[in-house]
Amino acid sequence: MSSRRSESGDRRREAVYIDGEWVKSTGPLRDVVSPASLQPIGCAPDGTAADMDRAVAAARRTFDEGAWSGLPVAERIRYLERASELYAARAAELADLITAEMGSPITFSQKAQGPIAQHVLTYFIQLGKQFEVEQARKGLSLPALVVHDPSGVVAAIAPWNYPQALLLMKIAPALVAGCTVVAKPSPETAIDGLVLAEIFDEAGLPPGVLNVVPADREAGEHLVSHPGVDRVAFTGSTQAGRRIAEICGRDLRRCTLELGGKSAALILDDADVELTMEGLRDYAFRNSGQTCTNQTRILVPRSRRQEFTDALCDMVSSMKVGDPTDSTTEIGPMVSERQRERVEGYIGIGRSEGARIAVGGGRPAGLDTGWYVEPTVFVDVDNSMRIAREEIFGPVVGVIPYDDDAAAIAIANDSDYGLAAGVWSSDSERAVGVAKQLKAGLLLVNGQGGSFDAPFGGFRQSGIGRECGIEGLLAYTETKQLPLL
After folding, report:
1. Are 166 and 234 in a shared domain?
2. Cα dist. 397→152, 222, 298, 356, 462 in Å?
3. pTM for this entry
4. Is residue 132 annotated as part of the catalytic site, yes or no?
5. 307 Ramachandran zone, left/alpha/beta (phi>0; psi -120 to 50)
6. Which site in 24, 88, 123, 415 is 20 to 30 Å from 423, CA atoms measured?
7. Is the domain of 23 the same as that of 164?
8. Does one domain contain both 41 and 154?
9. Percent of the chain at pLDDT above 70?
């Protein structure tokens, strides 16, 4: 069956990708609806447990027969290099598609959604060229040969906010390591997930190496619990991550979980106001607030509280909310009605807790169609409030004052999460010193940081394991030792 890519711009996808073939799903077709216009922009299959069974069977057979895992790393990389070339040719198309699917502002999609995903793929290709499957170790004990075998069949599950990059952060290292993959894109961004399958199919990947089945949580849970799966790689909410960890724990199945965050921006008392606000325009509201690393707890020195608060309010008030296809739009719609209800629910919670809205708090005027919400600034926020402790996943920030650096560090670390944080200061050495005391996996200093060469992941309820860096590749291997003879 065709993937229905009959012409440029065709956004109907009527088949799932299993065992190197486009096959009819046992589930219905689902409209993919624009969160801006509320009109269908295409359709994709709604995968089922039966589809997952077929996909896992294909991945299992291919892995066990060695059709992929038995290839030298260099040969596997040649397939990925071809996929990377094909991806580059469709990166602009994918950026436009993601904007249509989930409302990411087009300017952001063009610089982040497509290009970052492309960079993830090329990064793991280059890392794979340096990867030593066998390593001789001669140290303090007996000499040994360390061998990195591929883990097996990987279930790769990605959310809708960065659908390409977060899926490729799992698929690319898994394929380099020699694993086979069953990928489950989110229903909201199912079409771009199937475009990714088209790219790998055109690259000539052997049947069963990569299987792509968009599906909802029920089918996803079936995939996670499937006895034919050796490792699960998941990005999503902490609530969903707990459920996946519970399922994997029953069989001691390996898992990598990149979950939620409630990141702090520590604005030190020597920070430049203008430069800090310019940075927070991005790092607090990236992707319309739908980014797990966004710095939504804005910690300001009490001595400059009013100055920074006024500047923040001015900056947020100036942000353009609107049509995500407009290149001047900074805040697009929430991905769905349910997501907007969640954000608005937290705005109501903030009010009830005694926090005060300084900017926003409602729906933008003139945007009656679409799941829009105003970017919102809360003041009079205490770190014990729910709006300071729970992930909202929308364009909502809270200003929290502190007395000195030690107090700021304590507030930032007083969280159930630990995914990311940022420090803003005119003294880089001082900022780095503060950042080193924060309990978070990704630390930015004046907006700088975030290398793919370094591991990414969180402390506490922000997840288990790491993606990217050599750590992100080794996650898809099992290590064994032999005597070095």
Report:
1. yes
2. 42, 36, 7, 12, 19
3. 0.95
4. no
5. alpha
6. 123
7. yes
8. yes
9. 98
